[in-house]
Write a structure and sequence with these properties.
Layout (H helix, E strand, L loop, with lengths): L1 E5 L11 E5 L8 H11 L3 H10 L5 H10 L1 H19 L7 E6 L2 E5 L4 E4 L15 E3 L10 H9 L3 E4 L5 H6 L5 E2 L4 E5 L2 E8 L9 E8 L2 E5 L17 E4 L7 H8 L3 E4 L15 H11 L5 E4 L8
Parallel strand pairs: 1-15, 5-6, 6-7, 7-8, 12-13, 13-14, 14-15
Antiparallel strand pairs: 1-2, 3-4, 4-5, 9-10, 10-11, 11-12
Helix pairs in contact: 1-4, 3-4
Length: 308
């Protein structure tokens, strides 16, 4: 079995460059992933919640001390900064570029637009200048940055969600967007976005939206915290599927069902979660081992990695 580990410094390649290597034996974890996990494990949810609440205006002396005390939070900030710099410096003429910022938050750059999906970060507001629109799978704190969405709305930028009316974007009259329940297809810039409802669990019915985003012949599928495999029905075989593998769906059944070329095992080490609620790299490696033989390329990305 092989898996893709992004930006492995031990390979001698540049950070962020995809690297294929033989999967480790069960008692081993690639050095970059192991170092990441050690830093994350040192960060309790309470420290993360306080730091996130401080927002982008947190005093610099507090930031420095927090980074010293909690290496996982230093990685968290550095990932955001890295992605923002790369988005600005990257020119896209063909297939979109995609970065994992944190948890299931990604930034996508197409030839005509920059947008985010589930971008939730203490610095998230700083991304607003770069974003043309935003997609949000559901209204949970680890997928929503309220300050970012409110500012985008105030600036009449489209936010597609099933919980925010986003009237500013509607009033502008130049882009469709805003509140979306049920199935809906939108065209924003060069992205065709099919929105479909999905259950989050057995009582939060249709609480989540899945996004099938096509730019030309290339398709990204982001299924958020979906609970039922039967509710995930992309119309194309995705070039890239970003998924939460431990919220109810069977990741292997999904791969068999809609045959993504590459599958990103996401929701990795969400700092606001604890115990089994944090998906660590060992569990992600197990997921990769299950799905690689089924014909998808399993991608293990950590915060800040470019994944496309």
């Amino acid at each position: 079995m092989t898996a893709t580990f992004l930006g492995c410094a031990a390979s001698g390649r540049a950070e962020g460059e995809p690297v294929r290597q033989d999967a480790p034996p069960p008692d081993a974890v690639p050095a970059r992933l192991a170092a990441f996990q050690r830093d994350v494990d040192s960060t309790p949810p309470s420290a993360y919640e306080l730091f996130r609440a401080a927002g982008p205006d947190c005093p610099e002396n507090v930031v420095r001390q927090t980074h010293r005390d909690y290496p996982g939070l230093k990685r968290y900030d550095e990932a955001f900064d890295k992605v923002m710099a790369e988005v600005q410096s990257t020119s896209v003429t063909g297939a979109p570029a995609v970065w994992l910022v944190y948890n299931m938050g990604v930034v996508v750059k197409t030839p005509k637009a920059v947008f985010a999906i589930d971008l939730a970060h203490r610095k998230g507001l700083l991304a607003e200048q770069l974003l043309d629109f935003a997609l949000v799978t559901h209204n949970h704190d680890d997928h929503v940055d309220e300050a970012l969405l409110a500012t985008m709305d105030r600036h009449r930028k489209t936010v597609v969600s099933n919980f925010m009316c986003n009237y500013g974007a509607h009033k502008r009259g130049t882009t469709p967007g805003g509140y979306s329940r049920g199935e809906r297809t939108l065209q924003i810039a060069d992205a065709t976005i099919r929105v479909t409802p999905s259950d989050h669990n057995d009582y939060l019915r249709e609480f989540t939206s899945a996004f099938e985003i096509s730019v030309g012949d290339w398709t990204l599928y982001h299924s958020g915290d979906s609970f039922h495999t039967r509710m995930l029905n992309p119309t194309r075989e995705p070039d890239l599927w970003i998924c939460h593998p431990h919220n109810g769906i069977d990741i292997a059944d999904c791969v068999r069902k809609f045959r993504p070329k590459r599958t990103v095992v996401a929701h990795l080490d969400e700092l606001g979660h604890e115990g089994t609620g944090r998906i660590d790299v060992r569990r992600a490696l197990d997921d990769a081992a299950r799905i690689e033989p089924l014909g998808t390329e399993a991608v293990l990305a950590i915060w800040g990695d470019r994944i496309q």
